[in-house]
Amino acid sequence: MDKIVIEGENRLEGRVRINGAKNAALPIMAACILLDGPSRIKGIPDIIDIQTQSEILRNLGGGVKKTEDGTIEIIFRDGENDDKFTAPYELVRKMRASICVLGPLLSKRRRAKVSYPGGCVIGQRPIDLHIKGLAALGAQIETTEGYINASVDKLKGTHISFAGKTVLGTCNVLTAAVLAEGITTIEYAACEPEVQDLAHFLNKAGAKITGIGENKLTVEGVQKLHGVDYEIIPDRIEAGTIMIAGAITRGDIVLENARLEHLSAIIDKLREIGVEITPSGNNTLRVKGNGAYHAVDLMTLPYPGMPTDMQAQFMALLCIAEGKSIITEKIFPDRFIHAAELRRMGADIRVDGPSAIIRGIPFLSGTEVMVSDLRAGAGLVLAGLVAKGTTQIHRIYHLDRGYERLAERLSVLGATIKRISE
Ligand code: EPU
């Protein structure tokens, strides 16, 4: 197992290009099951979750080939591999997002057997809304022996109103509806840029989806979808994480391939804290840190609100911002395991139910910490960048799931950061 070792207090400077979005790539790859013929998807990050998703698709009979330049070629053909409809526990347990093959399998192969993903360290993560949505389209679904077993004769368009916003639940219903008979309306659909990207991808492949980015999606079922060339959106969470790396080290960095319109909540909050952010056109923005940051209150919410996937990173920054900040986690109320690790670095954080109260201190101190999940890991790396002394971060395999060569890229910007085999 590898660990990351950081000597803190180095100012970051330079330019960095943001990779394609993990959470757009995963459902888009799964949606290739619906297409007849090859697709080439550009901007795929080189991370473990993409490898896991590729494995799942190969297991379902798909051809999946990654090229050096971050393009992935995926091919499924109508009528082939109809007897393959299982996403097994060995693969699903590695990555909860593998649940997003459920909708495409049900639509295309009329059967799906997907290991029940269970909870995870960031919270309970039920899938009741996915199941209700697919059942409304006509699927029979039961859970037996740890698997979701779904089958259907013919999916039929209907009106679905989600009782709560769910990103992958919306993706599953959307992918099930595109080839269903008739019209499906999805009320209270998730509007996250990654869901929008999936919808744009499907439309390019021949689907008829309207209301993209709004609360209500309308899907007119079509007979067939074809392979396409597509480029996925830049990763707004990677962009936000690197922006905070610039801010927390009082650095001066330029992000390329950052979509401003997806980053509004993050940019507004960073400016409120005291970080200077200057967009300079062409999806480029400059982040300039300064000496004095102030406490803010922050609440995670569905898009366009503050993403829960940025909560741990903001917590790291607020540890050194003067005054009392309150973070309220509205998406995953238990997603605070990193708070205890940050406390080991000297942070003054008290978790009270779904809120964390942070009192800013002048500096964090390096020590040994442990990563509990992907974004918690990002928060700890950011804390390590500004801490006095050496920070050793263990269990970094969580980081490899979602950030492409994070340590290497931060090192190019001037961080003293190494990856070491333990
Ligand atoms: N929920 C339900 N029932 C459901 C589904 C969700 O009650 O059937 C609840 C959840 O418990 C949670 C809320 O709805 O309170 C939102 O969960 P959502 O379904 O939107 O989460 P997800 O689709 O499973 C995706 C991302 C997560 C991200 C969340 C929230 C992917 C692959 N994953 O998960 O990303 O935190 O949306 O934005 O897109 C990450 O990248 O590190 C990550 C965890």
From TrEMBL:
One molecular function GO term is: UDP-N-acetylglucosamine 1-carboxyvinyltransferase activity
One cellular component (GO) term of this entry: cytoplasm
Q: In which pathway does it act?
A: Cell wall biogenesis; peptidoglycan biosynthesis
Q: Where is the Enolpyruvate transferase domain?
A: 7-410
Q: Does the keyword Cell division apply?
A: yes
UniProt lists the family membership as follows: Belongs to the EPSP synthase family. MurA subfamily.
Q: What is this protein called in UniProt?
A: UDP-N-acetylglucosamine 1-carboxyvinyltransferase
